[in-house]
Design a protein that fits this description.
mainly beta, 36 strands, four-stranded antiparallel β-sheet
């Protein structure tokens, strides 16, 4: 079954997908998931545990896959304030502790930070309140601890949060709900010291939300999203990105020559040498169409150069999907698909090799 707004993570051997939006129940939400084992080349259904939800977030680490929060407890106007950890070896779910847990929320971010799961930001769908707090669950702990509030970023949703190996890098997002408010700032959180530091704004990307961000091992690359200006039709898509280097505490501009068209709902993965942007919704895709795209490009930060990712004729235009890098290929799955209308059905998932 196709779906969007699902939680997903790459475990190092498998792509895990859980929950999301699809006609699984009367609310259009799902309480199931599956794991694609790349070694076996097949999907394995996961046992049920949590209630149906979307706009949750997941992260993998320490032999487990964690899902927390979301929307649908019950109905799309109610946030979820619980979560669970899937033991990947035993395929068994266990509830996360409730003591000290973050308040119920959706649109948040969950990051595995080498020994701890960090949940931060998001919004409460019932009140439309954006949130600027979070909590950390240490390995083996029976309770969460609050993330420091001093020097933390303002409340936001649709932001990015990326682990650098030392800090959780939070950037951008929307500071409002209906209407959204583009943010162009961020901060770095050190979970060991429980301390924030502001990221510089000079030279950074234009304010935006629903963008992507990848960590290369030395820098953060931000691309795409919404909020780069507006017109009568609403917020404009973003087609410009930038790179943040913690070692220099500064931003570096990216070449736009050969970059994908402005878009949101795309995915970004790091291959070890390149950032691959794939799919998403654009006003003009590479084939001249609009809406979900079946195109992308690879960015080499060492050369500050883009090259096209050429899709096969069978590639399915999609947005809001999930993606993972296996070490040799990019797996993409689900999302909002634009089918050709031919005899063949839409493809739920595809693999793209170098």
């Amino acid at each position: 079954m196709l779906r969007s707004l699902a939680a997903s993570a790459w475990t190092g051997e498998a792509l895990v997908v859980w929950g999301g939006s699809a006609p699984c129940d009367v609310s259009g939400l799902c309480a199931d998931g599956a794991l694609f084992d790349t070694r076996a080349g097949r999907w394995e259904a996961l046992p049920g545990f949590l209630s149906a939800r979307d706009l949750t977030d997941g992260a993998a680490g320490d032999g487990g896959f964690v899902v927390w929060g979301g929307r649908g407890c019950p109905g799309v106007r109610t946030a979820c304030g619980d979560g669970a950890r899937l033991d990947l070896a035993g395929r068994v779910w266990n509830a996360l502790p409730s003591m000290g847990a973050p308040s119920a929320r959706a649109w948040h971010r969950t990051v595995w930070a080498d020994g701890a799961f960090v949940v931060w930001g998001g919004a409460e769908p019932g009140t439309n309140q954006v949130l600027g707090d979070g909590a950390v669950l240490e390995r083996g702990a029976s309770a969460w601890r609050a993330v420091a509030s001093a020097s933390s970023p303002s409340g936001r949703r649709y932001h990015s949060a990326t682990w650098s190996g030392l800090e959780v890098l939070v950037w951008g997002g929307s500071g409002g709900v209906f209407p959204d408010v583009a943010l162009g700032d961020g901060a770095a959180y050190d979970p060991r010291a429980d301390r924030w530091r502001a990221l510089p704004s000079a030279g950074g990307p234009a304010a935006r939300w629903a963008h992507t961000a990848v960590w290369t091992g030395t820098e953060l690359i931000v691309f795409g999203g919404l909020g780069c200006g507006s017109d009568a039709s609403g917020p404009r898509l973003c087609g410009v990105g930038a790179r943040y280097r913690p070692g220099q505490d500064g931003w570096v501009a990216m070449s736009q020559d050969g970059a994908p068209s402005a878009r949101s709902g795309h995915t970004a993965i790091w291959t070890g040498t390149e950032m691959w942007i794939w799919g998403g919704a654009a006003e003009r895709c590479a084939d001249g169409s609009s809406g979900p795209c079946a195109d992308g490009a690879a960015y080499d930060p060492a050369r500050d150069r883009w090259r096209p990712l050429t899709a096969t004729e069978r590639a399915t235009p999609r947005a809001g999907h999930v993606a993972a890098w296996t070490g040799s290929e990019m797996l993409v799955w689900g999302g909002e698909l634009r089918c050709s209308g031919g005899a063949e059905p839409c493809s739920a998932g595809e693999a793209y090799r170098r």
